[in-house]
Batch of 2 targets.
Target 1
Amino acid sequence: MTAVDCDVLVIGGGIVGLSTAYAITRAAPGTRVTVLEKEAGPARHQTGRNSGVIHSGIYYRPGSLKARFAVRGAAEMVKFCAEYGIAHEVTGKLIVATERSELPRLHALVQRGRENGIPVRELGPAQMAEYEPWVRGLAAIHVGTTGVCDFGAVAAQLARLARDAGASVRYGAGVTRIGRRPTAVAVRTADGTVLRARALVNCAGLQCDRVARLAGDDPGMRIVPFRGEYFELAPSRTSLVGGLVYPVPDPAFPFLGVHLTRGIDGGVHIGPNAVPALAREGYAWRTVRPRELAGTLAYPGAWRIARRHWRYGAGELRRSLSKRAFTDAVRRLLPDVTPDDLIPAPAGVRAQAVLPDGTLVDDFLISQSPRVVHVLNAPSPAATASLPIGREVARRVLEAL
Ligand SMILES: Cc1cc2nc3c(=O)[nH]c(=O)nc-3n(C[C@H](O)[C@H](O)[C@H](O)COP(=O)(O)OP(=O)(O)OC[C@H]3O[C@@H](n4cnc5c(N)ncnc54)[C@H](O)[C@@H]3O)c2cc1C
């Protein structure tokens, strides 16, 4: 038998990796866990660059992992934040139809919410105004269980709890190689350190397909990075938005559309759009990684998305390149906003799994091979759902030990 340094190695110190480490220490105390994160601290990518919304679970197909884990995860996230003094608020949210063609989809959401056990209220324009006097629409639904929190602070707390329970969390430890033996898995980090474990968990977010390949597995998908750009409402204009306001999403996409979010700091964020990122960690148009871009362009799935969704994509590109076009889109929900009210804010990049036939993977995707568990699709609402996801991944890796 190969000598090992620990039982489970977790690659990725985002909210999913840290929740997994925490869950392992809770489910099987004494299990030796090490988290390896390439950045200098937790939550430097998706977990620290998102809308900060605790999603209710209304959107997701009943029975899907997203629906089950989001509904349960939202309640657990609120409790977790309350227990550890992390800033959060259950604000409720409106989903607003601004065009007649959106009304059937709004009604379908009411139905879906009820199927997922989420209380929703249907509102006409006058009732809408009681919640959001400056927002315009033909009809809306109010979802009471939606909230906001600081997912970066949640990730940091999960790291503390995992460490308190004996786990090791190493920052500045990017995994560059993975070797497999019948009884163990070995990784090498960028500084040449080699660590051996009985099992490995891949929670590498934007890099998860690459890490799967490093481990010798074919993930059957590829991460196509979609940047989400945000603006902030000028401080003098934040009174235009009371809480959270979302459009009716286009069911062809796993993205929810540009929304208005009053965060825990009282500021109002507007976004995110969805444009192709020219690098996996490309937070601005000027960040281009030619090899990564060439990899995306060589992937048949990327071209199939482009062919299928070129009209939607062209609109998103226009709104990314022109502040006026972005403002015009926001004005459908909030007519009083002007380009001068919008201040650019930091962007995020979504790790979206795409199949070779161009399908955007909708549900969370977790796969396994001997001694290895890969989290291959954990886009929104995975931050909301991170506690149940972590438990599920922990269950699978403990079974594999
Ligand atoms: C714009 C945007 C808005 C969103 N809004 C919401 C929202 O409102 N509510 C919600 O619930 N969800 C939201 N999400 C989704 C949510 O942020 C993600 O689902 C969640 O953060 C995923 O966590 P993760 O741990 O899988 O990924 P990440 O946070 O990206 O963590 C992966 C980690 O792996 C590390 N890593 C990668 N490769 C290696 C390697 N080789 N070695 C070591 N470490 C490595 C990375 O540095 C990174 O820290 C949003 C996402 C985006 C981008």
Target 2
Amino acid sequence: MTATDADHAADHVVATRTFYDAVAEDYAALFRDSLAAMPLDRALMAGFAELVGEGGRVADLGCGPGRVTAHLASLGLSVFGLDLSESMLAIARRENPGLRFEQGSMRSLDLPDGGLAGVVSWYSTIHTPQDELPAVYAEFRRVLAPGGHLLLAFQCGDEPRRHDRPWGHPVALDFRRMRPERIAALLEAAGFTLVQRTVRAADTDQGESTPQAVLLARAATG
Ligand SMILES: C[S@@+](CC[C@H](N)C(=O)[O-])C[C@H]1O[C@@H](n2cnc3c(N)ncnc32)[C@H](O)[C@@H]1O
């Protein structure tokens, strides 16, 4: 599976891939064990897993080093990861040899219509320009079976935060914050029914500086 020509033409996709290729090892080291210290995030993932059902086929889109993919697998899901960044995927495969990880773009997935019971996008739409979000959510909806579940995490806010030269690497990228009510409206326009919207305070012990949102939505059955 490869990113499409359209993706290659999109500057932000190239910038995102370049950024994560550069920081992959540092990012993986920083976040490797962080879920263990985040019981509320794990609770939301557990609820998602229960709704999807044991063995349900799930895609972790924008999986990075695979830490969330591995956690979802430990909850009994039949999950695979997908990411733009080959460096991230190399870490994911190295650290989770029993799981499948593929290169691709969530803007144009090489997956059939309606084949998944669940989609997870854990902080992976945070580099997507606002005007492209409807197309991304439509793609999530397309690959989900009617009644399938989407779990979407992102930072709350209005202003993007630019990360320049992270860990000294010569790259930079905007981290976009979003308003949960606006994202909920976009999901409903894309054919989802909102199930739950949670916003928790920033966990400064984890380096967070803004409230964090997780939306759980169900693909419409009609
Ligand atoms: C902030 S990291 C989150 C990684 C992982 N979900 C986690 O929580 O550790 C964002 C990831 O999304 C990926 N990503 C961003 N846009 C993407 C796209 N259009 N298609 C696939 N992956 C994408 C990046 O390459 C990066 O690995």
